[in-house]
Design brief:
CATH superfamily of chain A: Winged helix-like DNA-binding domain superfamily/Winged helix DNA-binding domain
Shape of chain A: globular
CATH topology of chain A: Arc Repressor Mutant, subunit A
Largest interface: A-B, 47 and 47 residues
CATH class of chain A: Mainly Alpha
Number of strands of chain A: 2
Radius of gyration of chain A: 16 Å
Number of helices of chain A: 6
CATH architecture of chain A: Orthogonal Bundle
Oligomer: homodimer
DNA sequence: CCTAGCAAGTTCCGAAACAGCACTATAAGC
DNA sequence: GCTTATAGTGCTGTTTCGGAACTTGCTAGG
């Protein structure tokens, strides 16, 4: 089964995953909720390749989760702002964060 | 950046995604929470290939989210049971489900 | 004994996605 | 007219994925 076919699945969890079911998309949204909005900021914060970032931003805009907003006319520049639909993903990010904090402690030497 | 490198990220959301940040893993957990436990059940329910399913189950066991439980000795057979750690992902699934129900209605002809 | 069936995987190959890096486009500043 | 800043694209090799067949270990039937 293809990823895209999930979007018509009977299960709302599956449909949700059809939009944000890869490792990078939720990281972009995390950054958005932290106040980031620009391509270069996302690229640096998440460490993903620019190629993937561009693709995921496009998908998120198509899904109505972000809007591509021109913030500069002179050299045409765009940043990405959460829609209300996107902001309502905050609770989901919170529950994932809480689970991670509880069950996936950092395995660095500094923590022990 | 590689997927696996996320597991040491400072951000708990990123660490969580290092475990369940692909399209299929959360579907397996959804099925577990619905009471499924066997390989063939997961394969049929989610529609993923057996190859990927086997890989994801292995990862989930390694992550301590599922346990591989022998339920038959005669022909060695195993099923997969949620640990407490895994059950605590239920709230996360709920929030994703709620968001999907609200923002991603099924696009079938029957809905219009 | 021989074959079929069930369940949990494993193997193989072509297709798609990804990582890494360089490159483009447009304009501002020196 | 050269450098810097920003938002992407192109290119190339590697990794992962999708689909279907095959394996293993046992049971049931003829």
């Amino acid at each position: 089964m293809k990823w895209s076919e999930l979007s018509d699945n009977w299960c709302p969890v599956a449909r949700t995953l059809s939009v944000l079911g890869d490792r990078w998309t939720l990281l972009i949204l995390r950054d958005c909720l932290l106040g980031l909005s620009r391509f270069e900021q996302f690229a640096e914060s998440s460490g993903m390749t620019r190629h993937i970032l561009a693709d995921r931003l496009k998908r998120l805009v198509e899904a109505g989760i972000l809007v591509r907003n021109p913030y500069s006319e002179a050299p045409k520049r765009y940043d990405y702002i959460l829609t209300e639909k996107g902001q309502e993903l905050a609770p989901a990010l919170m529950t994932l964060r809480d689970w991670g904090k509880k069950h996936l402690p950092v395995r660095r030497a500094s923590t022990s």
